[in-house]
Amino acid sequence: LIPGAAPHRPEKRWPAENFGALAAGLDLPSVVLGTASEAPLAAAIAARAPRTLDLTGRTTIPQLAGTLARASLAIGNDTGPMHLAAALGVRSVVLFGGASDPALTAPRAPDGGWPAILRRPDLAALSVADVAAAAQDGHNDASSPP
Predict the structure, then answer these.
(1) Domain count of the chain?
(2) What pTM was estimated for this model as a whole?
(3) Fewer Cβ atoms within 10 Å of its own Cβ: the N or the C terminal residue of the chain?
């Protein structure tokens, strides 16, 4: 899980509580990745999904890449680590608010395909159920832009 985004652009963040509810409902172990400043987001997620492993602020860029490369799924906001996950070929669900246009800035997979993209003008309006559904069937193989 990658709940962070640019600290000066909070509108690009899906609520941490939603990430927590999502993690609690997934049948996968959850790892939260991000910078040390995103540790409060990880704490909010772990409050809802206690089995979550918090690695915020604990990885270098190469370690982040190595962790993502071993992931079976990455879910996160429109941020750099999601581009890295998609570039590594990790099945990804990327969450976009109205602040960015995925047609211009969405991550790409190594084969040129697109990850699953969910976009709402207000990310808080994006339901946990919608993200969970995309996590179940989202693929990095779309042939056209989001």
Answers:
(1) 1
(2) 0.90
(3) C
